[in-house]
Amino acid sequence: MQEPVFQIFVYGSLRSGFQAPAFEYISRYFTLVSEAKAKGYLYDLGEYPAALPTHDEAYLIGELYRIKNEEEFYWAMEQLDAYEGIHADPEDGALPYRRDLATVYITNEITTTAWIYWFNEPILNHPIIPSGDVLEYMQQKKNQG
Questions:
Q1: Mean pLDDT, range 102-126, rounded to an integer
Q2: CB under 8 A, 24+ apart: contacts of 83-91
Q3: 21 DSSP β-pair partners
Q4: For position 58, what pLDDT does the model report?
Q5: pLDDT of the residue at 84
Q6: In CA terms, which of 39, 81, 99, 139 is 20 to 30 Å from 7?
Q7: What does the pLDDT read at residue 17?
Q8: Distance between alpha carbon 79 and the CA centroid of its chain, in Å?
Q9: What's CA 141's distance to the chain center, in Å?
């Protein structure tokens, strides 16, 4: 039987530097473990980034968090699922994300398992973020504009 996973990897609006209201929630219930990365492609959907998993050598840059109180984990994740629109009705305009387990790289040699939110549909006609780092990408766009 697999041990429960009490960690989450965030690469977009849940990251500390994104300054989204949801980060306040993350910081209340989770502790930053470290900066980290996970295999995936990151896309610019406009207001938010979206990621698709890959086996290629492409990485999402983000942060790894661990729940402060394991007894609150499932409740805390339900709140994040609601924020990400996991159980929302697509007719309400919710984006199609799903939550899965992924291998997260703390360093090239040290990995762990954490929950991650993936976009759940093919992404067409949206630019890829080559660095995999949405904060760096947003800063570059701001400097160009």
A1: 94
A2: 83/14, 83/22, 83/25, 84/117, 86/117
A3: none
A4: 96
A5: 84
A6: 139
A7: 81
A8: 14
A9: 20
Contact between 145 and 60 under an 8 Å Cβ cutoff? The reply is no
Report whether pLDDT(90) > 60: no
The encoded tokens of residue 110 equal 């040290």
Q: What is the pTM of this model?
A: 0.90
Angle, CA of 15, 20 and 24, to the nearest 5°: 80
Using one digit for the tens of pLDDT, what is the confidence trace for 33-83? Answer: 999 999 999 999 988 889 999 999 999 999 999 999 999 999 999 989 988
Please give, one letter per residue, the 3-state secondary structure of the chain: CCCCCCEEEECCCCCHHHCCHHHHHHHHHEEEEEEEEEEEEEEECCCCEEEEECCCCCEEEEEEEEECCHHHHHHHHHHHHHHHCCCCCHHHCCCCEEEEEEEEECCCCCEEEEEEEEECCCCCCCCECCCCCHHHHHHHHHHHC
Exposure of 12 in the CB half-sphere (CA atoms within 13 A): 23
Residues 6 or more apart whose Cβ sits within 8 Å of residue 5: 101, 113, 114, 115
Q: Pick the closest to residue 63 from 21, 101, 114, 127 (CA basis).
A: 114
**Rg from Cα positions in the chain:** 15
